[in-house]
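User: Let's play a game. I give you a shape written as tokens, and you guess the letters that built it. Ready? Here's round one.
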């Protein structure tokens, strides 16, 4: 099961690298409006997954921090993998639906349409949901509370900063259409927040 978790992690990395390469080839990916948030998301998410890996290896199996202490040591990798696969699917779906407008930086083209189909009909930032599910699933698969905490809190904190910067740019560039969409659609949790 852990092999599948690691394979899914490599697929995630390949997707992210592919997106950066795609941006570069198209002459896109300017970080001018980004305010460093891409690197904050990358740094905190990478740090969280590295910490989860270390905690997953060094914590004793009978530790109260390990899920094994609950008497169910085998469910965590399978559950984590399921969450990661869902996250990868959501992230990829979000990229496909936005198409050429999807960037790894905060960069919005004038005249760009406000996309309200696919996962964007439920939340404004489904690709970040994908990242959060991928990271959280990795922490869950590591089999301990400390890994799960790191992979939920650090990426979430970075994504919230990123969303704030991105929404300022989207509102400034796209104007009223984005403001209407923003008022009608939740940020990350459908129907809640």
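Assistant: Ready! My guess for every position:
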């Amino acid at each position: 099961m852990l092999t599948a978790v690691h394979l899914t992690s490599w697929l995630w990395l390949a997707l992210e690298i592919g997106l950066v390469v795609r941006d570069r080839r198209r002459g896109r990916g300017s970080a001018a409006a980004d305010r460093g948030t891409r690197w904050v998301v990358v740094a905190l998410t990478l740090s969280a997954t590295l910490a989860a890996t270390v905690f997953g290896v060094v914590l004793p199996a009978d530790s109260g921090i390990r899920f094994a202490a609950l008497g169910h040591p085998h469910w965590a990798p399978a559950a984590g993998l399921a969450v990661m696969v869902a996250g990868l699917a959501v992230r990829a779906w979000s990229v496909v639906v936005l198409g050429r407008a999807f960037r790894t930086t905060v960069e919005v083209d004038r005249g760009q349409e406000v996309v309200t189909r696919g996962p964007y009909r439920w939340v404004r930032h489904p690709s970040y949901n994908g990242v959060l599910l991928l990271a959280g699933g990795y922490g869950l698969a590591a089999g301990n509370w400390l890994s799960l905490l790191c992979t939920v809190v650090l990426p979430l904190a970075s994504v919230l900063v990123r969303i704030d910067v991105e929404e300022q740019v989207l509102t400034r560039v796209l104007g009223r259409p984005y403001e209407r969409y923003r008022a009608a659609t939740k940020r990350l949790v459908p129907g809640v927040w």
